[in-house]
Amino acid sequence: MEIQTFEFKVHGDERGSLIAIEEQTDIPFSMKRVYYIIDTAEKTRRGGHAHRTLQQVLVCISGSCKILLDDGGEKAVVSMDKASRGLLVDRLIWHEMYDFSPGCVLLALASDIYEENDYIRKYDKFLEEINT
Ligand code: T46
Q1: Is 49 a catalytic residue?
Q2: pLDDT digit string, tens, across residues 96-105
Q3: Ligand 1: distance of its center to the CA of 24 in Å?
Q4: Which protein residue's CA is at the shortest distance from atom 5 of ligand 1?
Q5: Is there a contact between 80 and 66 (Cβ–Cβ < 8 Å)?
């Protein structure tokens, strides 16, 4: 499976660092929504779904976590531990997030607003949809 990641420029000086992410330039779509996952309880697994049309870039801006990507044929696990690295979670990719470190902040840049009908929350339904 092809894993697409983005390395964002770190603007650093003696004060610290700043990272800017611009739609269509640093990530391959226009953003309509930003959300972030914080205060994750120990041993939690989140996600466990795919999106029909939504594209997202995930950035672990503090701490670390792992992201499982599954295209229905192949699986890959990506370790996220750099605020300057984005991971594309494309449409029709089953994804799960786990192994959150204490204080992990996972930022999501999403191509559309929240729409429950865009979620495929059952794995067998996901396999059915990608094969039709
Ligand atoms: C995804 C992964 C990476 C909203 O009201 N608005 C929103 O924009 C989002 C994302 C969620 N919610 C509500 C829906 C649920 O009641 O927040 C609650 C938790 O959402 P969910 O169980 O879907 O959270 P995760 O961590 O399993 O999945 C989230 C995103 O929903 C999903 O799109 O790809 O993070």
Answers
A1: yes
A2: 999 999 999 9
A3: 23
A4: 114
A5: yes
| pLDDT at position 116 | 98
- Residue 27 to residue 108: CA distance in whole angstroms: 12
Judged by DSSP in three states, 118 sits in helix
The number of CA neighbours under 13 Å toward the Cβ of 4 is 11
Which residue has the least CA distance to atom 34 on ligand 1?
47
Q: For residue 48, name the pLDDT band (cuts at 50, 70, 90).
A: very high
Alpha carbon nearest to ligand 1 atom 11, residue: 114
Residue ranges around ligand 1 (CB below 6 Å): 33, 35, 37, 46-47, 56, 108, 114
Question: Contact, 131 vs 72, CB < 8 A?
Answer: yes
Give the tokens for residue 113: 């607003």
Alpha helices in 1-132 (DSSP H): 123-130
How many angstroms separate the CA atoms of 83 and 63, rounded?
9
User: How far is Cα 12 from Cα 111, in angstroms, rounded to an integer?
Assistant: 28
